[in-house]
Design a protein that fits this description.
The complex is a heterodimer of chains A (157) and B (159).
Chain A lengths: L15 H17 L15 E2 L3 E2 L10 E6 L5 E3 L2 E3 L1 H21 L11 E9 L5 H13 L2 E10 L2
Parallel strand pairs in A: 1-7, 3-6, 6-7
Antiparallel strand pairs in A: 3-4, 4-5
Chain B lengths: L8 H17 L6 E7 L6 H5 L3 H6 L4 H4 E8 L5 E6 L2 E3 L3 H13 L7 E6 L5 H17 L6 E5 L7
Parallel strand pairs in B: 2-5, 5-6
Antiparallel strand pairs in B: 2-3, 3-4
Helix pairs in contact in B: 5-6
Classes of the chains: A alpha/beta (157), B alpha/beta (159).
Chain lengths: 157, 159
Amino acid sequence: MSGGVISKEKAEPNLTPLLDIVFQLITFFMLVINFASDNYDQRINLPDAGSARPVEDDSRIAEDRLVLNVDSEGRLLQGDEAQGIDQAVQTIRHQADLVKLGLKASGVKFDPAAAGLPTTIILRADKETTFGSVLGIIKACQAQGFRKFALKAMIRS
Amino acid sequence: MEGPDVPVAPMLDMAFQLLTFFVLTYRAAPVEGQFVMNLLPPQPATAMAAAPADAAASNELPATLRTLPVVLRADDAGRLVQVNVADVDVSNDPAALQEELDRHLQDPDSPFDQTLIKVDPNLRYAELMTVIDAFTNAFIKAKKEPKLSFDELRGDEGG
């Protein structure tokens, strides 16, 4: 009489190394996920330009920066609000006042006629907008003492 | 002698769920670049942008002679229809523009080390960027620091 031996032992693979790998993958994705996308408004379709400098490689950009998003209608985007040129001028003036207050508080002397504000304006304008609209924003910035500009574009591959 | 038997499988299930979440929500950051430039105030832009103080000190030529004048005209739809470089009409084909800019900037006898671009306000930003791109390329090829400035082209200005 043949009788099979049924083992009552359960297979217990060691899952710890697998768990280690999975945690490493989770850590990787958590680190590379783009949390700082608030400034990069997805409604803006940037123009293409092959010779634009990669952002991280450009050491000339000061740490102090102000991001301005201009949509295809030439309006300045502030959160969910799209501002016309008059409102945009007020927003830029307000931002410039904040920068000047910050400079004053830190004891930095500001001479608008000489060097301008140290803040770099990061201009993200939609490719469908007109130069006139962009120039309106640039002039408003210049009137408040901003001199440094970075015009954003997508780097063509 | 055996240690406590901690069940790892539920933790692994959770870890896989977290991993799935991050894999699905992961979105590669767009590769953005930028053109960095100093733009001076509107009123004296044509004169001052063309004549940075340090450049003026290092070069005896007046700023107006060192500035390559460029005019960009657009049609009603905002497309680039006319490019004028140093009073010469150039095809708005990017390759032709690049060739013309190389001719001006790479010539060792050429006095130009900066440019002033007068732009039709109706021109689409994407079209302007192609021109800025061409200029930046030409300056880099000529081993010069790109110095660009802009002004608004008025209707009564010739080109």
